[in-house]
Amino acid sequence: MNDETTLAKPESRISKFFHLRERGGKFSAEILGGIVTFLAMSYILPVNARILSDAGMDSLGVFGSTALVSAIVTLIMALVANCPIALSSGMGLNAYLAYTVCGQLGYSWQEAMVLLTVTGVVFFVFSLTPIRRKIIDSFPTDLKAIISAGLGGFIAFVGLKGAGIIVADDSTLVALGSLSDPSVLLAVLGIILVLILMNVKTKKGLLSSLSVPIGMATVAIAGILIRACGVDNDGLPWADFSANWGMNDYQNVFAYGLFSSGQAGVVTGNGFWGLVGDVFAQPASYVVIFSLMFVNLFDTTATLMAIGRETKLFGEDGKMKSNRVIMADATGALICAPLGTATVTSFVESTIGVKIGAKTGLASVVTASLFLLSAFAYPIFQAFTYSCVTCPALVVVGAMIFSSNLKTIKWSDAEIGFTAFVTILMIVLTYSLTNGIGFGLFVYCAIMLAKGKGKKVSWILYLIAGIYVLDFALSSVLANLGATG
After folding, report:
1. Which of 5, 79, 394, 406 is in the most buried spot, having the most CB atoms within 10 Å?
2. Does residue 50 contact residue 407 with C-beta atoms inside 8 Å?
3. Strands 344-346 vs 87-89: parallel, antiparallel or unpaired
C-alpha cells in the first residue's frame, strides 16, 4: 500500500502542540534556533547585573534573577503564544532606573523596584484591553518595515560598540576602536568568519545555517586559548569553573530585599508598606511612573512590531493575529521587579533564531531552558557572555534585518523616504528605539499633513506623536529635578 495514509509519518505530541507541521517547521531547526537565540542574548545577564549593581543591587543576585525571570517569561511566550520570541531585561529601562531614578533622583534601589512594580501592574492591565494591539495595528506596513530596519542597524551598532570596534570620541562622538586590542581584532575576525560561512555553498545550506553558532564558538575557543597563553586582556573570553555555581545572593534582590540578612535589605524600618509609603510621599514618584509607563509601552511595542515581521505575528492585512504575544510580554513587566530585576521585554535577537529556521514556541522552550540552566551554572555560559563573542551574531544578523526590510520600503514616496532616514538615524545615534520612532513619527505626520494626506493617517498615530512630545517633556522635567535635587 502506497497511499498517503500509509506513507505519512505520525506526528508527535510535541509537534502537534506547537503546530510544527502546520507552520512548516523542523524539530532540528527549532532546537538550533532556540540555542542560537540564547547565545545571542546571553550578554544581557552580566550586562544587566552590572548596570543594576550601580543602583546598589547585588550583582550576582541580579544575574540569577535576570536568568530566572527570563526563563519564566520566555516559557510563557512559548506555551501561551507559541511564538519563537525570547524575553529578558530590556536595555534602556535598566539604565534609566540605575542612572536617572537612583542616580539623579536619589531613590534607593528598593524604592525603584516598587515604582517598577506599580508600572508593571498598570502596564499589564493596559495590555488586557485592545488599546496596545490597536497601537501596533495603526502603523502602516512601510513604517513597520522602517522600524524593523532601524532595529537591525541598532543591533549591529550594539555589537560593534560592545566589542570596542566602535568607541566614544570627544571630537567626533564615535570613532574606530583599537585594532591592536586582541579582543577587538577577534571580534572583527569573527564577523568576517560568519560572513564567509554564511555565503559558502553546501548541500542543503547546512554550513550557512550554522554560520552564526560556529562563528561564536570559534571566537570563544580562540579567545580562551589566547588568554591561556598569557595574554592579559579582560575583553577576551574566559570561564572560571571554580566559583559562582548556583543562585548566588538571590535573597538580596528577591522581594525588594525583604529576606536579606545584610545591608542589601529594605532600608526602611517599617518593612514593605513603609517602603511604599516613603515612595509615594515623594512628588517625583508620579512623574517617574508616568515616564516608565511610556518608555515600557513604546520600547516593547516597537520591538514586537520589528520581531513580528520576521515571526509572522502579523497577517496579510498588517494586523496582529493574536493578543497572546502581547499578554505574554506584559507578564514580564508584571513579575520582574518582585523577582529582582528590571522590566522584561521581547528581544530583537529572537530574529536570529527565526533566520535559522525557528517558527514556533518550541524554540522558545529551548531558550527558556538554557536561561534557567544559566541561573545555576554561570561558569558554563561565562565565555559566551563576552562582547567579542556575541558581536559577530549581532552585527551579521542586524545587517540581514536591516537590508531585508529596507528593500520593501517605497522610497519614491517622500513621507516614507524621509521618515526612514530620520527614524533609522535617530535610533542609532540616540541609542534609543523610542527616540527614533518619536522623531520618525513627527516627520511622517508633518509630511502627510503638508501633502494634504493627513486624513489617511490614523488618529492613533497623531495621539502617539503627541504623547512622545509629552514624554520628551517629562524626561526634561526629570532631568531638571535630578539637577536641583
Report:
1. 394
2. no
3. antiparallel
**Residues 377-435: tens digit of each pLDDT:** 877 777 777 888 878 887 887 788 788 778 888 888 888 989 999 989 988 888 766 67
DSSP string over 392-414:
HHHHHHHHHHHHHHHTTS-TTSH
pLDDT average, residue stretch 267-274: 60
Q: Are strands 87-89 and 166-169 parallel, antiparallel or unpaired?
A: unpaired
**CA trace torsion 290, 294, 296, 300 (10° rounding):** 160
Please determine, for residue 273, whether its predicted confidence score (pLDDT) is greater than 90.
Answer: no
* C-alpha 181, offset from chain centre: 28
- Over residues 181-201, the mean pLDDT reads 90
> What's the rounded Cα separation, in Å, for the pair 346 and 277?
32
pLDDT at 305 (0 to 100): 65
Dihedral (CA of 209, 212, 213, 219) sign: positive
3-state secondary structure string across 153-199: HHHHHHHHHHHCCEEEECCCEEEECCCCCHHHHHHHHHHHHHHHHHH
152 vs 247: CA distance, rounded Å: 34
pLDDT for position 291: 65
The amino acid at residue 166 is I
Q: Where are the domains of the chain?
A: 17-484
Long-range contacts of 241-245 (CB under 8 A, 24+ apart): 241/379, 241/380, 242/379, 243/379, 244/60, 244/378, 244/379, 245/376, 245/377, 245/378, 245/379
The H or E element spanning position 106 is none
Question: Model's pTM, two decimal places?
Answer: 0.68
pLDDT tens for each residue of 316-330: 655 666 667 778 778
Give the model's pLDDT for residue 1.
Answer: 47
Cβ atoms of residues 62 and 52 within 8 Å: yes
Rounded Cα distance between 70 and 374, Å, is 10
CB 316 within 8 A of CB 360: no
